[in-house]
Amino acid sequence: MTRYAHITGWGMAVPEAILTNADLEKMVETSDEWITSRTGIRERRIAAKNESTATLAAKAGLRALESTGLLARELDLVIVASASPEHLFPATACLVQDALGATRAGAFDLSAACSGFIYAVQMAAQSIRTGAIDSALVIGAETLSRLVNWEDRETCVLFGDGAGAFVLEARETPGGVLSGVLRSDGSGGSLLTVPAGGSRMPASADTLERNLHTIHMNGREVFRFATRVMATATREVVAGAGLKMDDIELVVPHQANLRIIEAAARGLHLPMERFMVNIERYGNTSSASIPMAVCEAVEQGRVRPGDHLVLVGFGAGLTWGALALQWVETRRPPGVQRSRLTLWTFLAHLRSFALRVWRRLEGLFWGTSSEG
Ligand code: COA
Questions:
Q1: Ligand 1 site: residues with CB under 6 angstroms?
Q2: What pLDDT, on a 0 to 100 scale, did the predictor assign at position 331?
Q3: Cys-Cys link to 54, which of 86, 203, 231, 240 (CB 3.0-4.6 A)?
Q4: How confident is the model at residue 60 (pLDDT cuts 50, 70, 90)?
Q5: How far, rounded to the nearest angstrom, does the alpha carbon of residue 311 sit from its chain's CA centroid?
Q6: Contacting residues for 301 by C-beta, under 8 A, at least 6 apart
Q7: Residue 33 has pLDDT above 60, yes or no
Q8: At the top level of CATH, which class does the domain 4-326 belong to?
Q9: How many CA atoms lie within 13 A of 186 on its CB side?
Q10: Where in the chain are the domains?
């Protein structure tokens, strides 16, 4: 039997408190006009005192689990991707494993900054496909507000807090995670970094005074890097799945800067309607941004069974990566017979096939192909 790794559950959690651009105008020398026009961000969420990366992760994880009917104690693996983990150790994933009661799951953190969720889903999917595990809870969670220098206008306007989660399960139905691309270039490590607090530069009075435990970024270079890799990784992962750009119904990019997303759309010759964007309400939530955007895309009816999606991200490391998915409804809602579910899955595949043929014909006859 061929095993496929399907996304059977999803959930997100954000803090209640909203920090608007107008609020930031009172904190640093900036303006709503500058932030909106340069980044697309209007507001972001900021964790309350009693919230942390682990509490947001557990909340998102619980919502994802609840949407599947899978019990926490049935999970085989919990992975938390985060650039702002609860501690250096223990892993945030272990705290989440305990909070959820995932008593037989392995748990570890994955550090690939804003690309972390892509990396973690690919790791979980590979483990499911090999038969090593049957299910995994993958979470991207951040409280970057705790790592931001609130006097540095170049970074403090960008980031926000939140968490998003997927449950992945083994299924026999074709679909789910179809292909993945993971890349890195450590030579660019200094472009985006929290210099102090690790073994290289342990926290001290001096590092505190020099703000070295906060985010330091070369914005222009990161911008250049991001626009370079987004389109390339998307093309690679689509080809790896045996698909064409025309087959992709929705691209869910890392939400770092609207201009970066627009540049990727131009590079791929795709209209912006095929990109999920929610950066205006959350800012850059690093590893959480992609699963949060997927959750909202599903909620808005922009993802339907049978659709092909690309999730693509980049971040500190430097790291970048992409996943190609086929979204197949494999959940078994209460009372729905297995035969009805099979029919539903068959119809979803049929719809997807018909759409692909239609797009090819459209391209052939009217030259409207958006092939990248
Ligand atoms: N408010 C007002 N002015 C600001 C500002 C702010 N919040 N931040 C920077 N500026 C100023 C700069 O000081 C600079 O002034 P100067 O021309 O007098 O030197 C001017 O605006 C232009 O700066 P520049 O860096 O060219 O702006 P930009 O158009 O490149 O936008 C970023 C800056 C940070 C928004 C953009 O480079 C970016 O998004 N980079 C990628 C960052 C990112 O995504 N990081 C996370 C990766 S996961």
A1: 30, 34-35, 38-39, 114, 153-154, 157, 192, 217, 219-220, 222-223, 226, 256-257, 284, 315
A2: 58
A3: 86
A4: very high
A5: 7
A6: none
A7: yes
A8: alpha beta
A9: 0
A10: 4-326
